[in-house]
Amino acid sequence: MRVKVISRSTDDFTRERSQDLQKVFRNYDPALRTQEKAVEYTRALNAAKLEKIFAKPFIGAMDGHIDAISCMAKNPNYLKAIFSGSMDGDIRLWDIAARKTVCQFPGHQGAVRGLATSTDGDLLVSCGVDCTVRMWKVPMLKMVDTNDAIGDASQPSAIYTWKHAFWGVDHQWDGNLFATVGAQVDVWDQNRSEPVSSFEWGKDTVLSVRFNPGEPDVLITSASDRSITLYDLRMSSPARKLIMKTRCNSICWNPREPMNFTAANEDTNCYSFDARKLDEARVVHKGHVSAVMDIDYSPTGREFVTGSYDRTIRIFQYNGDHSREIYHTKRMQRVFCVKYTYDGTYLVSGSDDTNLRLWKSKASEQLGVLLPRERRKQEYLDAVKERYKHLPEVKRIVRHRHLPKPIYKAANLRRTIIEAENRKEERRRAHRAPGSMPEQPFRKRRIIKEIE
Amino acid sequence: MPGAKSATDQKAMELGEKEAMDEMEKKVQKYSRGQAANLGALRDKKLKGQLAAREKLYGHSAKAAAQAEKWFMPTERGYLEPEGLEKTYRFQQDSIVQEVDILSSRKAFDMILPLLGPYTIGYTKNGRYMLVGGRKGHLAMMDMLNMELIKEFQVRETVRDVAFLHNEQLFAVAQKKYAYIYDRDGKEIHCIKEHGKSLKLQFLEKHFLLASINSFGQLHYQDISTGEMVANIRTGLGRTDVMRVNPYNAVIGLGHAGGKVTMWKPTCVKPLVTMLCHHGPVTAIAFDRSGHLMATAGVDRKIKLWDLRKYEVINSYAARAESLDFSQKGLLACSNGSQLEIFRDTGGQDYKIYMKHRMVKGYQVGTVLFRPYEDILGIGHSMGLSSILVPGSGEPNFDTFVENPIETSKQRREKEVQSLLSKLQPETIMLNPNMIATVRPSRKKEKKTKKEIEDEVEDVVEAAKNTEMKKKTKGRSKASKRAKKREEEVLKAKRQLMEQYKESDGRPEKKQRVSDEVELPKALQRFAKSRQ
């Protein structure tokens, strides 16, 4: 007879000294874990609820300006710095971590309309309604003690006066050029006092400009004649133009897919385009209930943030037709500018109420360093949430956002209006000869034409 | 010759490798939780890619788990093997106890308690603690790891059943009039009057539900974390004390006097399943850990094994049993009077006798229970309690985070918190626990599309055209006659098919209204609808 029974000596399974870690034994046999799916579902549900409980995206407000904030610029060379310009001509440099003004620039006579930094982060270009472009030397931030009081920067390193008021500025990536827009598009060299070249296509004011992050000579502008125009600096005239039914307030390239850009439109939607194929939008991002004022992509290119006249900030997936997140506070007024920080974890918004506000990009994310164990746990919970996201209870909790009453009502009203329009069109089509009124997808409906 | 030798060596090595590969594949199978989804039928390329990546990940994790088995599972399974002409069922308990190591030999014992019996027993899920209930009011809790008595007290009234709650800190006792909950120190925490005179208690540890069947045949479910009475179901099948939880899906099985076995969940007032298992009362019922196997015993001197996927008898044995229990590794223990028999699956769910044990004559065995994570069978009988060694019955390797037989108080507290956080709702109890998050298949019969019907008609017509015709005489095989006949054939085949489709539509054809017969232009259709 050969016989053996399970025999565990306690010493082998317990720690020797109280300072030791407890011994851990694993048996991954599925038979030991019954009702796995129910357990996972419960965990997903709890994770969704906890996410809601911990969703506190607002970190703090940065006050100091005495008029509405009109524009902002990130510093590519320094993660926690951000420049802001206000309607009274004031330009400030902020330390996001300390939420304080580090440096105040003398600024402009009228409103500052555009701010841009060079890729090396040494130069700040500002322009405003006083028809001047001013260049500022950015103080070495590493030397500045964050606890220090507000420091005054010296005079601008250059002031160039030009023929018209400016509406925006953007600096070339890895180059010396920058472009200003206003009555026309002007391309400047850092070392020249006059534009290197100027473009004009139509008579209306150009509102915003952005250089392509991949192709340094390509830039895109949006104008008040409802157009989006692509320029190539290697050519003498603008390349292509797209006219929509309403104007775009701001445009941003996707930094990871630099052929794609997204335009923040006056008709409450954002439109993502492929620059090579302008006759239809790739995605229409809906959600805002008032004009979208500014847009900025996260450095990963997977998400972008929009600020709107309806006093909310929304975060969209690059391919999502509805917003992932809506941020609002009671005190935040109409948002004029938003920026995603270069590490992709924070958002900064500047609004009519003279404050800059700092937000987390993931509302329930824990700030600070996570222990490996905490990180793994978080990853697990995210995975189960992803797995059971289609179940009605989980979906309901994850989707739900509380909205201020005016916005909620405005959204309902918009929905009613759109439904009525659709209904009307359907009936109109029914009364027409079949095929005489082809149905157009929404991606094309707001586009009037493309001009080469 | 050295060359030939090396060739044979190589062959042997290859064989060995192949065996190892096969063994590995078997292990991977265990962890892969069923077949991979069939992605060939998918048309959505994006989804297909995503699912393929997911399946690949599952494969990797199964393989990793199989490979880690060697390192994570230090303990080997117990065994009892005969040599020569020996038979395992002839081995006496004494000889087994003599053969095994001292530590294990201490685990087999007989405790003679003649005054307050007969006794019933219960184990915690991790197998460390044993609860003993004597019919005449004797309650005791023991730590089986150190063989210590933790608490012993008398309630001085009938004790029908005992059951641990989620850990050894609390246990429930079915007493003369009501069920009570006591803590580890023997303090009475609750008296649960709502359950009535309960005969049998079971605890669903994932749901924190205490289930009981009372003398009126009412099944109660109570959530012990909130105190809420989740369900009170009248079975309507009379008094019974045969109740077991299926560990696979937390469905409760009841055996009734009429020979029926019913299965219950708290959110349904009707039984999920009713099976006529025996002629005459059911005396015992047990579920295997895998959830696919049920054993029932009746007074009709039959022990039956059921496949719970098909609800069919796999095997039937002529034997009596007062109590049944499946071990973690699938051994089946049956008690009959003072005799015990343990069966083992010899492959293909063919259960053969594995061990026999005979108590002292006159002892009536009431309860048999395998101790989890040990090769031990606990026996509660009329004169006390015993435990015997059954090699190969228990799961040798535990998972610290699932059930830990050697847990510290800190680990126990941590586990309590975790299990409360992931407490399952009563709705998650269902016959197939993997149903959650799957898509319910549509009930509707798939209708054939117009094109499919047309294709089929075409095929039939083609077949009819190509039928060979008999050569006939007297001018009946003229070309015109043949053509006419062929046409008739085609029409006949077509008509048959069309009638078939009409029938399969199911509904009798509606009489059309006058207004419907006139085809309105599209613009006016909405007015026509609103008038109806």
Q: Find the CATH topology of the domain at 88-434 in chain B.
A: Methylamine Dehydrogenase, Chain H
State Rg of chain A. 27 Å
* Largest binding interface between chains: A-B, 43 and 70 residues
Structural category of chain A is: alpha+beta
- Order of strands in the sheet with the most strands of chain B? 2-29-28-27
Shape, principal axes of CA atoms of chain A: globular
Residue share in helices of chain B? 25-40%
Biased composition (Basic residues) (chain B): 471-484
Domain BING4 C-terminal (chain B): 353-433
InterPro entries (chain B): BING4_C_dom, WD40_repeat_CS, WD40_rpt, WDR46/Utp7
Region (Disordered) (chain B): 462-532
Which helices and strands appear, and what pairs or packs with what?
The complex is a heterodimer of chains A (452) and B (532).
Chain A: E1 2-4, H1 10-13, H2 36-54, E2 58-62, E3 69-74, E4 81-86, E5 91-95, E6 100-105, E7 112-117, E8 123-128, E9 132-137, E10 151-152, E11 158-161, E12 166-171, E13 177-182, E14 185-189, E15 197-199, E16 206-211, E17 218-223, E18 227-232, E19 240-244, E20 248-253, E21 260-265, E22 270-274, E23 283-285, E24 292-297, E25 303-308, E26 313-317, E27 323-327, E28 335-340, E29 346-351, E30 356-360, H3 372-387, H4 392-399, H5 405-431, H6 442-445, E31 447-451
Parallel strand pairs in A: 6-10
Antiparallel strand pairs in A: 2-30, 3-4, 4-5, 5-6, 7-8, 8-9, 9-11, 12-13, 13-14, 14-15, 16-17, 17-18, 18-19, 19-31, 20-21, 21-22, 22-23, 24-25, 25-26, 26-27, 28-29, 29-30
Helix pairs in contact in A: 2-3, 2-4
Chain B: H1 2-31, H2 45-72, E1 79-81, H3 93-99, H4 102-105, E2 109-112, E3 119-123, E4 129-134, E5 138-143, E6 148-154, E7 159-164, E8 170-175, E9 179-183, E10 188-192, E11 198-204, E12 209-214, E13 218-223, E14 229-234, E15 242-245, E16 252-255, E17 260-264, E18 273-276, E19 282-287, E20 293-298, E21 302-307, E22 312-317, E23 323-326, E24 332-336, E25 339-345, E26 351-358, E27 365-371, E28 376-381, E29 384-389, H5 409-421, H6 450-465, H7 479-504, H8 514-517, H9 522-531
Antiparallel strand pairs in B: 2-29, 3-4, 4-5, 5-6, 7-8, 8-9, 9-10, 11-12, 12-13, 13-14, 15-16, 16-17, 17-18, 19-20, 20-21, 21-22, 23-24, 24-25, 25-26, 27-28, 28-29
Helix pairs in contact in B: 1-2, 6-7
